[in-house]
Amino acid sequence: MISDGDLYRLAIFLGSCAMMMIVLYHFLDVNARDDEDTTAPKQSKNATTSTVSSDNTSETSSTAKAK
Known about the structure:
Oligosaccaryltransferase; transmembrane helix; Dolichyl-diphosphooligosaccharide--protein glycosyltransferase subunit 4; 3 helices; endoplasmic reticulum; membrane
């Protein structure tokens, strides 16, 4: 049988390991690079810029003349 002392040491050891794993997970999660977040604005910005410049060419020239 397992004694009370052995059970106590096992619980402390496993609890400590669990806490270290949680801290490690959060450290890695916070410091991870977000490739989806960094590439999405660039693609949408380029797509929006090209769409706006090609669709609103006449509006841009008329607006520039009005100013």
